[in-house]
Predict the structure of Importin N-terminal domain-containing protein.
Amino acid sequence: MSDPTSDPKYQQLFAALQTLYTNSARADKERANTYLEEFQKSAEAWQAVHAILSSSTAGLEAKMFAAQTMRTKITYDFHQLPKESLASLRDSLLGLLVMYRAGPKPLMIQLAVSLAGLALQMTEWKTVLQDVVQHLGNDKETWPAMLQFIAVLPEEVSDSKRVSLTEEELDARTMELLTDNADQVLQLLVQYAQTAGPEGPSPVFFACLTSWLKEIPLQSFIATSLFDLTFSALAVDSCFDAAVDLLCSIFKETREVDEYMMVIQAIYPRLLALRPRIAESREDPDAFRGYARLFADAGESWVVLIARMPREFRALVEAIAEVCAYDEDLEAVKFTFYFWYDLKQMLTIERYAEARAELRDIYAGLVDIMIKHLHYPNGDNPNDLFDGDREAEEKFRSFRHEMGDVLKDCCVVVGGSECLHKAWEKVYMCLQNGTTKWQDIEAPLFSMRAMAREIPFEEDSVLPHIMEMLVKLPEHEKIRYAATLVLGRYTQWTSRHPQFLEYQLQYITSGFKNPSKDVMSAAAQALKHFCQDCNQLLIDYVPQLHPFYQQVAPALHSADLFEVTEGLSHVVAAQPPAQLYDTMKMFCAPIAQGLMAHIPNAATADEDLMKKIADEVELLTIFIQNVAPFVEASKPHPCVTLMQELWPVLSALLQAYGNAPFVAERISKCVRSMMNAYRMHMLPLLPAIAEMLVVYFDKLQYGCFLWVSGTLVRNFGELEVAAETKAAVWSFVQQQAINMFKILNKTQPKDIPDVIEDFFRFMGDVIMNFPQQLCTSNLLDPAFQAALVSLSLEQQDPLVSILHFMRDMLAWALPSPPTSIMPHTPPEVMDAVRAITSQYGPQLTSIMFSGMIHTLPRDCVQDASGVLLMLLEIFPQEAVGWIAATIAALPEGTSSAEERQKFMASLTGALQQNDIKKARRLVQDFTAHYRRRNVTPRNATRGLDYTFSYSG
């Protein structure tokens, strides 16, 4: 074979590789990458990569590229090879593995994966393992290559969705390659271990065992010398990680403890013998993490046995607690967290009460461990405890919340009072000592806050002492912040212990005078929960709360002001019906007056003013959302009386500032909240609201007017609504839809993705509430067209709304409607939807397939396949033909005729058996495989050439 590095036909390839792997210009690298991607898909690549791999002069980068290309081509381009060439490809790969038996290892791995992929798809090759062993197993120098192949084979078979084999072929091939060879593989590994020499087995040996665990019976494994060898390998640095991975995998295989009891009895003593190494490895972070994984994974796997036999397995729980106590590596400590949760779940079952009593002291000790870990560092710089390492600070903050979950588990097992007492005692001792750092007080305070959810509201032994202590703590920003948040977490307890309400409220509200923004935020959050949970106790406090609100509101950041407003709104909601209007107006009227004061400034308003207006509208929205008592439809609603007074303010504000999208959105949200809160009571305002939505959507074309329109349809499209109201709502729907169609006549969907999303969410409400009117109107055809053209978008949220609308609409072509508002689909509705589906079915099928292959985000594939399945359900024969025509139109060479025939036969068979799940899976697998083979990665996606036209 000629040297590829000097062969003219490969010069462009080597030039592209040279550009990619050297310090070339970015544009040159992109062009080189594009060329190499296309080269990898070409049929010529087979010969080229073999030539490079066989060359003695090609560089390592070129050979790695060739090996990776070989792997991907076997996976995705297997259809390019004639069957008569497969045997020579197999022999070539075996020869290359011999050639690269000494490495480089990454290259050898790629070749092993390539051979495994070939073995999976070359179904006529029946003696895979025997042939590989014959070629690579007779010489110690080639054993590493053989072991690498054995290690990757199960992984390639388990990842078999990437190849185009049917389920039946995959099942048969799995049996031939794995199940039938499990005993032989075990004997091979035993033989290798016996001849490995004084240095012991290589890490790939343990990788082989790990990957074959599901095939080799564990009873057979522990009966061999490999069992002892695995534990011995933990003392060998080069094998440590691989041995840990193997043992953790073994533990997970034994989760069915009754089935594997004999195996567990053999493993458990060997595991306990490793316990001293937890302490011995404290100076070696990697080793400590390995042992932490071992004990934590064993505990998770055998948690049922621990609950059944707590005395026998107590030592394992103690070992995991010992790992958890280590404070030098919090990442290793995290390995234990799921175990504590899992075991807690078992110990709460009544039949395991004995285990709960036996292990209770370990969970009690765990409380002390967690509080110790919660301490902030004692840094030299109090303003920067992490020495500028923001990542470390963020990790620690996140870790604290995970430790909080462990504390909740402790409360369940030990009891909330005892756990709280531990935290209270630590703070109490700090106060007694008088010279403690703030960290020593803040950490137990954080633990109190974390445990709040698990403390019963009737707790009377510890919480009264805590509540008395909190308001007397030393004045320090961090302590004040933590104490305020603790009060905010126990507001439901306070609602049952009103004697503590007065001084808690004073402590929280005094926090708004603190110069620290963090303390003010904590106070806002605590006050919200306080007002929400103690609203009945605060009914008579409105005369004090109102001036307090007026005083602090101007100084608060908007997020904190929203929290305070939400809290106070719950107090307003608790007022007696006769006082509700006056009380709500007391809070809302000043906000409305402030908004009206902005109207004259509209011409000169800057962005800051408009944001201030939007935030003030949000305050009204918060009151409306939370002050929404039930009032019978026949009686006037006191809040709606106030809404009628506020409406001119919102209308004037929209007219003055509606051009600002965020102002229009906040006003829209406020109107939507009115309708959701007061529903049928809003009928007097319905004409004005509908007119506003139509006029401003036509004028400004903002999607917010459409999502409010959907709320209007949902609230006033129900069957019990008066006929004249429903007719008015349908007229409103027509106007909004026509406005949208006019927009689409002159605007591309890609320029208004948010509006597209809101429109189809709106149409989803219409199809469910006005199916008869929509499906028999002249809006159905343009709505279908609008959906087709908008499917060219690539953003997920708009596509989801379109696909959901399509599925809901197509469902009306079936006898059973997709809603409970009617027992059967009206014939005229069914006929209309079937007619338009028949008209656009070929286009829709083509778009769905093209989208699933090229443009749709992965999270949209499920919905897209759902649309295809709806087509198959409505028109089984026709839809199969549409799919066949779509597949036939795929570019030549992108999939073989055999693959297409096999897919269509499987799909037809699934439909004949009415196996919808299988049909969905077949569609998704075919498109995913085609996409990976021909599209990913690619630098451009194919567009869809459908256009929208609406003549009105």
